[in-house]
Specification:
One of its GO terms (cellular component) is cytoplasm. By secondary structure, the protein is mainly beta. It has helices at residues 2-8, 118-129; strands at 17-21, 30-33, 36-45, 55-62, 68-74, 78-82, 84-95, 98-102, 108-113, 134-141, 144-152. The termini are far apart.
Length: 157
């Protein structure tokens, strides 16, 4: 019985990150720093030292929290790059703080919490209260999802 339970919890095996050599990373790309998906905002490379490797200094901003992270890595070592996807969903409504969303194929989902803080939270709440039709952009990385922006429908002006 215990063996069966283990197999039920198995995942698809798709990786949430891919390895990439540190020296091949570029500004505005994504990288995992301290187990968080970050967008690289600054990077510099030091010269090769007495013991061989040039070092790459990375500064990244967490894509979900906005927190700043730094890391130093030898240029020849691999770093994890998160698999990041962006999807647009039409907002149908909001109930108990969760948005009802529909994708282009007509599939519905009600599992995403509406943002509550900052300008984005105010904008989403205002549009839902006014019953406007609009789209939200959802960013997904490393098993986490968050609404990062809104788009006005093309039909309305």
């Amino acid at each position: 019985m215990a063996d069966e339970e283990q197999f039920e919890a198995a995942t698809s095996g798709a990786s949430q990150t891919i390895p990439k050599q540190c020296s091949a990373l570029r500004k505005n790309e994504f990288v995992v720093i301290k187990k968080r998906p970050c967008k690289i905002v600054e990077m510099s490379t030091s010269k090769t030292g007495k013991h061989g490797h040039a070092k790459v200094h990375l500064v990244g901003i967490d894509v979900f929290t906005g927190k700043k992270y730094e890391d130093i890595c030898p240029s020849t070592h691999n770093m994890d790059v998160p698999v990041v996807t962006r999807n647009d969903y039409q907002v149908i409504g909001c109930e108990d703080g969760y948005l009802s969303l529909m994708d282009d194929a007509g599939n519905m989902r009600d599992d995403l919490k509406a943002p509550t803080e900052g300008d984005l939270g105010k904008e989403v709440k205002e549009k839902v209260d006014n019953e406007e039709t609009f789209h939200v952009t959802v960013l997904k990385a490393m098993g986490e999802e968050s609404i990062i922006g809104t788009k006005q429908d093309r039909l309305e002006k």
